[in-house]
Amino acid sequence: MPAITPWEGEEPRFALTDYERSAACARKRLCSVCDQAMPQGPVWRVVGAAESAAIAEALAAGRPYRNLEPTLEGPGHRACMLYASMVCPYLARPNARRGTPAAEPDDDMTSHVVRGAVRGAMGAVVGFGEYEYAVTSSRVLFRFLDVVEFLPHDTADEHLDELRAELDRMAK
Ligand SMILES: [Zn+2]
Description:
There is one protein chain. The protein has 6 helices and 5 strands. It is α+β, with helices and mostly antiparallel strands. The strands form 2 sheets. Strands 3-4-5 form a 3-stranded antiparallel β-sheet. The chain has a two-stranded antiparallel ribbon with strand order 1-2. The N and C termini lie far apart (46 Å).
């Protein structure tokens, strides 16, 4: 049992699991960072070094990029993902590893193919034209199509100016 479980009477009440949250995110088009609705149009996510390199390579070659391996990470608002790229330790730090191997099936696949091909960026905030999802009995999988914006970074705080500008735009 998790260390922190709110109790109600005799029954432990668990918070929404990641699975339930992801399913709601996928079905209701909710941002995976702030849980608020995302408008129609592009969605954003933070990608690691391998996927960033694969996208850079595809763009340079004029090929469409498809993340063919689904990921467990849902999309979010542009501002939320710019923010997440700076505050989320495992996303922001080049050498940090994610906790669950299942969370990055695409990265291992991609890094095998493109390792050494493109250097520089440690990751990127990427806008996609649309996302697809599948809710299975145990997992929620996302797949992203059509890169509409590509903001690579060597260190995540490079996005601070972009985030400030985005927040200014939203405030108007
Ligand atoms: Zn958001």
